[in-house]
Amino acid sequence: MLNQIKAVIFDLDGTLVDSMGLWRDIDIAFLGERGIAYEDSLQEKIEGMSFTETAVFCKEYYKLEESVEELKSIWNQMAREKYRYEIQAKPGALRFLDNLKQKGIKMGIATSNSEELISAVNEAYHFDEYMTCIVTSCSVKKGKPAPDVYLEAARQLGVEPGECLVFEDIVKGIEAGKNAGMKVCAVEDDFSAHQKEKKMELSDYYIETYDDIMKAW
To answer: What is the model's pTM?
Structure first.
């Protein structure tokens, strides 16, 4: 998996931390406060979007009164303490990061999440101590499945896209990595269990946990 790989780039939610189910609860609470029924199809509609793109979509789709920036602020407030104190790292993730660091392989994060919530999760797990760069989709032109966030991460890491291995948990994220010309390893996640067959089809590798990789080292 790591042959000729100079950098590993991780998605965050559902990939390094087990947080995807958290957002369903937040969406239900947020919409319920506004008298709007939650739709199970919402996550499919916003999959891969940046934090800002999601706010733009929800404002238009639900005809919300709040501005895009106000929506982002509300979501950050609803999620921050959960990211800091409640969500768990994916099994084996920290051990895997330690191993990559020991091998001298560069690492980065390319996420659709907000800088505020990245900061909160770093307070819990200190991912920033491993990463040369942390890039959000809000800082590039288009969110996933466009390759922009992964290409920007590769640029900041100083490596060619073909020298990168991406870890992702959802189909549009996998597509973003492949569209960037990178190898992609899909990570199992309960939230995207219904996508498992498609994830395995699109990705170069598939793991249930990061310990699967280290068993081969």
So the answer is: 0.94
